[in-house]
Design brief:
It contains 9 helices and 7 strands, in the order H-H-H-E-H-E-H-E-H-E-H-E-H-E-H-E.
Length: 226
């Protein structure tokens, strides 16, 4: 498709059950501007994606809040964004989920510095950014088994993600990862883990937008047991 406009994004969200209201839209716009500004200094997204920041990054992050794709209730949950990079999906997610408490996690300090600066510029409350690896943070009292849910983009195979996230999640927690391509083998490996109750692969099929289907994008949900 042609370069997506903000009107396109709002329309597609609405067709898939997510209302981007008058308070959220200016924040999403400002985040996009901040992300592009920081991307000129450090590598947060591919340079070739800069013209497609709305569809490939912001819309992609927002599918977590579209009931046609994900029916999980994120309200008032403590959420960790694992491998956040430039703040995705966590910052767009937080903008449309005001009641959630979000922690952005990445092992690369300069990315967390950028995320912290963007959070401050957007004047967002209930969201913070921390540098570290999940396995190390899970040894700290503040983070160990303290999150209801983990969200992530395609930073690693699903079985690796759940291993990293296990020490951060409360009993019965869930992990959602935005991924693409053939996931057969990594899902098989994930299902073999004895602390995983279920793994579900959900195609990203949006009303009014075909690109995610063409690109074989999916949301994978893993539910943890005791």
């Amino acid at each position: 498709m042609a370069v997506m406009t903000w009107e396109d994004l709002v329309s597609i969200c609405g067709k898939n059950g997510l209302t981007v209201d008058e308070s959220a839209l200016p924040l999403l716009r400002k985040y996009a501007d901040e992300l592009l500004s920081w991307n000129s200094k450090i590598n947060l997204i591919s340079r070739k994606d800069e013209d497609h920041i709305l569809d490939r990054h912001i819309l992609h992050s927002l599918v977590l809040r579209m009931p046609t794709i994900c029916d999980y209730d994120f309200s008032n949950k403590r959420v960790a964004d694992l491998g956040t990079g430039g703040g995705m999906p966590g910052i767009p997610f937080k903008i449309v989920t005001s009641s959630a408490e979000v922690t952005l996690i990445d092992s690369i300090q300069k990315k967390i510095i950028a995320c912290s600066a963007m959070i401050a510029e957007l004047k967002l409350n209930g969201i913070s950014a921390v540098v570290g690896r999940a396995e190390e943070l899970a040894k700290q009292k503040e983070y160990a088994h303290s999150f209801d849910v983990i969200i992530s983009r395609a930073v690693a195979p699903m079985d690796e993600l759940v291993k990293w996230g296990r020490g951060l999640l409360k009993t019965g927690g869930a992990l959602f990862s935005l991924k693409g391509g053939d996931l057969t083998e990594e899902i098989k490996r994930t299902r073999r883990l004895n602390y995983i109750v279920s793994v579900e692969e959900i195609p990203l099929s949006l009303a009014g937008f075909d690109n995610f289907v063409t690109e074989d994008k999916k949301l994978v949900k893993a539910v943890f047991g005791p």
